[in-house]
Design brief:
Rossmann fold, disordered C terminus, disordered N terminus, 6-stranded parallel β-sheet, Arc Repressor Mutant, subunit A, about 725 residues, 11 strands, alpha/beta
Length: about 725
Amino acid sequence: MSQIGRASSAGVVHQAAGDLHVHHAPHGGGGGPGRGSVAVPYDGTEHLVRGRDDLLDEVTALTRMGGRSVVLHGAGGFGKTAIALSLARRVSESVHVWWVDATDSRSLADDLREVALRAGAAPKPVRRAWRGDRSAPDLLWATLDRLREPWLLVLDNADSPGAGDGRDWVRTPPRTGTVLITSRDGRSATWGGRVLRRRVPALDPRDAAAVLRELAPRAGDLREAADLAEALGGLPLALCLAGRYLDATAGAVRLPGADRPRTFAEYRTMLRDHFADAVTAVTAEPTHHRDCLVTTWERSLDLLHDRGHPLARPLLRLLSTFAPAPVPCALLDAAVLAGSPVFAGTTPTGLAALVSELAGLGLVEVHHGDLDTVSLHPLVRDITRHHVDDHDPYTDTRLALLHRLATRAADPSGWSLWRALLPHCEHERLAVRSDTAFADLCHSAGGAAYEHGFSTAAERLYRRALRVRLDLLGPRHPDSLATRHNLAVLHADDGDPEAARAEFCAVLADQVAVLGECHPDVLTTRRDLARTAWACGEHAHAEAEYREIEALQREVLGENHPDTLITRYETAAALHDRGDPGATTALRALLHDQVRVLGHHHAHTLITRHRLARACHDDLDQHHVVRLTIAALGPEHPITLTARTSRAVVARGEDAAAELRDVLEVLASRRGPDHPETLASRHNLRVATDDDRPSTSPLGRRRGRIRVVDPVDLPAQRRNPPRS
């Protein structure tokens, strides 16, 4: 015994004083034919609603309970209306249902008049109220309040909530009623605290593939449907459009020049290789223009523009030009954006409000944690990006944002920031650049990558920087020399000291010619040459070089300069490596000066503390060093990994093996399987696990030798900036 009605309209919805209100623009109130429909638009769904059972169960229970208002929110195309239709189906046998299409403000009042009539209001008072002789909202709600049977009022597409003309149409329902609203706007400030808000997410891969198979059963198998569903990001609108399109083309004749995709795999290929064509193909039919992927999110941006946020569209388009990965919120620096003509006048407060507005309409998703990030749905990103592909006005701004943050992320404590920033620094949209700004970014990003142990990424970035700098500046420009130097450091770190020595010699010759024999960069390169000499077994020569370089640095830079302290560490480490008892004294003196100059938690201080603990065979101090490095640098920083390896050497046993496995996994993923540090870590794990196995030999098992690879002074070189 259900009364099912529909009112087609749009209005302005807001929450005030605990009540939910819908306002409308004045209407003619004439005596023309009624425009309200009594049918819930069940034909709006072409497939079973999948993956929404938990949400539907919750809203169904709330509807049967009554007295609540619920907002289903999300960006356009996420299937909010389909969920509301499914709810109407579920409860229609026992609940009165009225459906209001809240997209057209001109007809809202007339359609709610139809709701009042269907709910039992007498025609004469309704005519007087809608003529303006009495309060139409009061009449509507007096009628609804008299109902003793449960009812549901659906306001579909209420996307523009806000102040209206003062006539409050929808209020907090009584215990017999429920108001369900679908909207792009999910902000608590819009709906108030008494309204339940439920975000509608994309479908998971399994349900998304089932939708495609249901709509286009001849287009391929479940695996192929799953691949396409993943490419479409589980977006219900995109799934429906693609499935409908492939169902139509499945039986089409293949003709020259009209070879349209007919299978999930073919459409997936088209989406990858010809994205714009793939999107246009499924939205070309005029009857489906309202669902067009190209325009659905533009309507949300139009809405934000009308609300007084004209920069929402350029901000979303800027975000779409970054890599398909979460964008660190720290990247959105208002001071940098304000220097762009597009974002002139941007302030931090205004920028934060823009991000909140975009998130409120489901165009972006903000993730909170140790590092706040912003992400875009894959299709929102790809379609928005195609608006700027022909003419990208954000290139310089994007480079400036990345460069500033990459410099900050090079700090040893910026590990989580760097992990989030790396894909954006390596994004293909930047790889075609050939100017000094691009080279500066790549050099800074390469230093950050090396600082955090991403050797392969560091080399790629340095090579991009060097390509541009050699072309624009030549091999002897100080910036080119800095990049050449850091590439040589990478090669030395890869375990080929002879090749690195040749590169350092070439860099040193050009540095001396351009900068002079006592320039700090020249002294750094000489120290690196001494390190390669030590690695080649020329210990006496290396130590002599260290002492001469240290004397020059004391004279040129001062005793407390970080470069001078690094060279002192090199000398003390050399003494330790060859078993000289003077190493402990030298390390203690160095540690005292580093704590005074750099602080207890500086990376260089921690390196020295780690080396000193090993030199003194102090097991407790090694545990202490691990705690310090994890707190200061994170659990996966190269210095921390070295300290954790040393601790495992001391501990042995199952816990030690577990720690060595973790270290190996990190090194293999960052430095590659054949890097010397990875190979040493694999050896260490093998020795540790062999020692833990019971021996069948009466003589027992011979213990292997754990090898610890020290970071030496590499962190300083990873941050080596170009000095002009």
